[in-house]
Amino acid sequence: MTGFSFLHAADLHLDSPLIGLAGRSPDFAERVENASRAALDALVELAIAEDCRFVLLAGDVFDGDLRNIRAGLYFVSRMRRLAEAGVPVVVILGNHDAENRFMSRLELSDNVRLISARKPETFRIDGLDVAIHGRSFPQRDVTENLARAYPPPVAGCFNIGLLHTALIGHEGEHAAYAPCSLEQLRLHGYDYWALGHIHDRQILSERPHVVYPGNLQGRSVRETGAKGASIVRVLDGEVAAVEHRALDAVRWGSAEARLDGVADRVSALDRIRATMVKALDQAGGRPLALRLRLTGETPLAGAFALGRGELRDDVETLAAGLSGDLWLEKLSLGLTPPSASSPSLDPTVAGRLDAEIAAIADDASFAARRDARLAEVLAKLPQSARAAEFAAQIRAEAGARATTLARALVEGDDAL
């Protein structure tokens, strides 16, 4: 078997909205509206430039029900570009594709093989001893172990399993669709498992390789860092290398600016600027949507808590001055004031007030009011892991935020 390369990608989610931008940064949202298409363009050109013999797409090409048929037509045009370069494409449908009403109507070029959803199929690549086994999702909610019915490896071939799955123990924030175990895949006899569904790049096993390439384009601040696809090099019937290539058009980032001991606003903004510069450098020249968190013990904690809107305006101005491709997705505060009482107040009064304020977080009536208000908010949100995470974060941080605000109000103008 001669050496060859192929490209493994998954979770393109074409035309998926970049969550968290439209309301806060409409200009940025408009500029990056076509980010998923640009990432697909990069994937196609990479496959051609690297002389890949075929491309594997392990599910979720689209983001559920197509909001715009142009996304489907765009995918068709990119597959035609690969056809012109003589590159076959093998595709399985994931949970998002399965609920798509337009997928079956797309007139795909002859180089695209869409694997059946009825039962596992095996597809051979012309001119190569390669057998690709796979099955598409018949509907969105697939709870059965699809891999169990995959055929045995073809003797004398490099065998690839193409599977959209949440491996047991690796589901993360993703629904547990088509569950199976890593050990089951390892023992199946294939040389490479090309997985999709989990959006974080992971090489779970070698010999055989079991790989999640991650999604092609990050969609929210929960999907930070480089996103792209994996080029797999095969030599003498074995995987010689798996190379991740960043293909995303827009990068999401999360950074922390520590303000311990910073006592004036100018110094705080200087430290924030340095943090954003570092985040920009790590974005690899791509537009960056940044979630910034301020932490540490500083006398500015109360002033920033009371003047959050003004602070955000200042940070957004800093971002605009650094780069036209940097947007502040969210600014959050985790600051605490110095433990010593303010000397501007009568020590006896200050001590008693501070003791009362410090007790807020442990006060039963405060906790009751917090939980009641939180229940009202949660009732308006869909039930999900994210809603539960949101509630846990509020419960954990509400007391500290309340004490910070209370101290700022007591200190008055001195805190501002």
TrEMBL record:
Transmembrane segments: none annotated. Residues 5-200 form the Calcineurin-like phosphoesterase domain. It comes from the Bacteria. Keywords: Exonuclease, Hydrolase, Nuclease. CDD domains: MPP_Mre11_N (cd00840). One of its GO terms (molecular function) is exonuclease activity. InterPro entries: Calcineurin-like_PHP, DNA_Repair-Maintenance_Comp, Metallo-depent_PP-like, Mre11_N, Pesterase_YhaO. It holds the Pfam family Metallophos. This is Exonuclease SbcCD subunit D.
